[in-house]
Structures are given as structure tokens and as C-alpha cells.
Specification:
Length: about 350
């Protein structure tokens, strides 16, 4: 798992290599280009996936809606397949799957196709069943992911989906050419920024040491980083067996705040931009209830530093690209806690790498 966490700078680079041409200010993705008419005519995009891939879908919802102004719904494939969903020929279904073999995602694809929707796959495993069953697609180029807990598959899925959203934004004219170029240039810097985020490893390990015996964790984020909070909690649960929940930060006051006391570590993603002030006020609420705050902040942050027990810095980037960076310390935190608890991080109990049964 650690090897795969550290492979993310090159995996992300491999995923946009040959697709993102910043000098020419173009994005080349044949699966999108060949079906551009369908994408432009689509009433909405429905994303189907499971687990971590579903979290990547949630990040994509924010990105597609914000940049390309296309309505997006994100569905658990297991629910979608059984609830008689309304699907029309004007829907585009994007199925996200690292393995390309997940039974529920495959069933959701078959259902969508039977209703006439165009289905686009985002898979990592070349030639996998989902890659073959979909009408078109784009591969992530993460390389083989062996660890059961998905890490580089997640960040490369977000990379592919961001490229798609940018390409569609340009085609739809929802983004100016200068904004588009700016996003491409910034996306190109992400591998080196992930590299920088990985430098927090030693500090994250000291934080892990302090909280490794906690029995519960709360993860909070807003906007683009709300799905990252869900993913951080999932990573901790699956490899350390510590109970963790992810929430949109503002939902805290609708229930989870009752859990907060001096025993409760709360990981808060509080990067600059993205409702920063509102997240800071959420942090104040946690502090006044004596919760322990681990803030994931933008480099150079001062406000959260004053309130939080620990801050882990990530480099600054465009708001829509922050999930690619904020995810890194959360992966490291769960990894270190699990190792300290002597868990098998690569093969956690009860889990399989690809879930080919429902
Ligand atoms: C979590 C994890 C799982 C998978 C899920 C979907 O770390 O790996 O939640 O994300 O089983 O798998 P794929 O993406 O192969 O369809």
C-alpha cells in the first residue's frame, strides 16, 4: 500500500500524459472526442460505482457541474440496479471501476444500456469486463493496484474525470480559453505537488502515534473535499478496523456533534478557498467541545493552526484540484495507524480486491 501511495505522482502523470497538451491548450481523449455529440446533447450524467470509485464519482459530480455545467447524479451501483431508475436515451452513464469486474457496477451498466443510455467506462484494468461492456471509455493509467485499499486508483480516476470535465467545458463554452489554459497548466503541476504532499509522511506518522488507540474518528470536508472526507474515513475503517465516519462539515450540527468530546479525533479538510471561513467556524465548534482537531490545510495557513491540535500542510492549487492533494495525508494517516496496530494493510480481513459477487 505504501508503495502505491508513493506511486501517485507518476500514476497521475501517466494518466494525463499524451492527453493534456498545455502548450497547444488541448485535451485529447478519443473516447470523449468520438462521442462529443452525445456528450453535448446529454440532459444529465449518471455516475455509477462502488466504494472508493463511488467517492471519485462524487468528486467528479462537483467538477462536472462546476466546470461543464452538466447536471450529475452519483449512484451506488448496487442501489441503482435494483430501484427501477428513470433512464433515457439522453442520459450518459459513466461507470467507474478500478478492477473493471465489480458485479454491481457491471449490472448497473447492463441496465443502463438496456434503457438506451450511452455508457462510458473509467477503468484501470485494460480489457476488463466493464471496459469491454461499455460503449466507450478512458483508462486510468495507475498501473496494477495490488493493495486491497484503493489509493492510486482513486487519484487517477479523479484525474481522468477532471480531464473529461475540462474537455466538455471547453466544448460547451462554459469556460473561457484563458481559464481552460490555466486549469491545464495547474493540473500539470499536480504530480510535483503530490510529491510535496508526500513529504508530510514523517509528521503524519507522529500524529498516527498519538491517535492510534482511538476507537472512533470523524472526517469532515466541504464542497470538492466532502467526498475526500468520506474516502479518508473508508481508508481508516478498512485497514485499521477503527470506526470512522465522513460527513459534510456543515452536517455536523445535525447529529454527529453529539459525539464530540476529548476522546474524539476529528480530521478536518480546511484548505484555502472552498468555504474556508465556514470550515474554520466548524473547527471552532469542535474545539469548544474539546474534540481533537487534525487539520489538513493549505501551506502557510495561520487561522486553522491557531485552533487545531495538529495541522498537515498540502500545497496550494485550484479549488477543484485540491482532492488530489488532500487525499494524500489521509491515506498516510490510515496506513501508519494500521501498521502501528499490526494490521495487514495490504490484505485487510474480510475484503477482496475485486468484488465479483453481489
Ligand atoms: C476501497 C476499495 C473498494 C473499491 C470497490 C470498487 O479501498 O478498494 O471500496 O473501491 O470495491 O471496486 P472497483 O473500483 O474495482 O469497481
Amino acid at each position: 500500500m505504501l508503495k502505491e501511495i508513493y506511486e501517485q505522482p507518476s500514476a497521475i502523470l501517466d494518466t494525463f500524459r499524451g492527453r493534456l497538451l498545455s502548450k497547444e491548450a488541448i485535451i485529447k481523449m478519443s473516447g470523449v472526442e468520438d462521442n462529443m455529440k452525445k456528450f453535448l446533447a446529454a440532459d444529465r450524467i449518471i455516475i455509477v460505482a462502488c466504494g472508493t470509485s463511488w467517492h471519485a464519482g462524487l468528486v467528479a459530480e462537483y467538477i462536472f457541474e462546476d466546470l461543464a455545467r452538466i447536471p450529475v447524479e452519483v449512484e451506488y451501483a448496487s442501489e441503482f440496479r435494483y430501484r427501477n431508475p428513470v433512464i433515457t436515451e439522453k442520459d450518459i452513464v459513466i461507470a467507474i471501476s478500478q478492477s473493471g469486474e465489480t458485479a454491481d457496477t457491471l449490472a448497473a451498466i447492463k441496465l443502463a444500456k438496456s434503457k438506451g443510455a450511452f455508457v462510458f467506462g473509467v477503468c484501470n484494468v485494460v480489457g476488463s469486463t466493464i471496459a469491454r461492456e461499455t460503449d466507450a471509455g478512458a483508462y486510468t493509467h495507475a498501473g496494477p493496484e495490488i493493495g486491497v485499499a484503493s489509493t492510486k486508483a482513486f487519484t487517477t480516476q479523479i484525474t481522468v474525470l477532471t480531464l473529461m470535465a475540462l474537455r466538455l467545458a471547453r466544448a460547451k463554452g462554459t469556460m473561457s480559453s484563458s481559464e481552460f489554459r490555466h486549469h491545464l497548466i495547474e493540473l500539470e503541476t499536480i504530480p510535483s505537488k503530490v510529491e510535496e504532499a508526500l513529504k508530510s509522511d514523517a509528521y503524519v506518522k507522529t500524529v498516527a502515534e498519538i491517535y492510534k488507540n482511538s476507537t472512533n474518528f470523524l472526517y469532515l470536508g466541504r464542497g470538492f473535499n466532502f467526498p475526500v472526507a468520506l474516502e479518508g474515513a473508508l481508508k481508516l475503517k478498512e485497514i485499521s478496523y477503527i470506526h470512522a465516519e465522513g460527513y459534510p462539515a456543515a452536517e455536523m450540527k445535525h447529529g454527529p456533534i453529539a459525539l464530540i468530546d476529548e476522546q474524539m479525533p476529528v480530521v478536518v479538510i480546511a484548505t484555502k478557498k472552498g468555504h474556508y471561513e465556514k470550515v474554520v467556524s466548524n473547527i471552532q465548534e469542535i474545539k469548544s467541545r474539546k474534540g481533537k482537531i487534525i487539520g489538513i490545510v493549505t501551506k502557510g495557513d495561520t487561522s486553522v493552526k491557531e485552533l487545531a491540535d495538529h495541522v498537515i500542510e498540502v500545497p496550494e492549487t485550484l479549488e477543484c484540484l485540491t482532492p488530489l492533494l488532500t487525499t494524500i495525508p489521509l491515506q498516510l494517516l490510515s496506513y501508519h495507524i494500521a501498521v502501528m496496530l499490526e494490521r495487514n494493510v495490504d490484505q485487510p480481513r474480510n475484503l477482496a480486491k475485486s468484488v465479483t459477487v453481489e
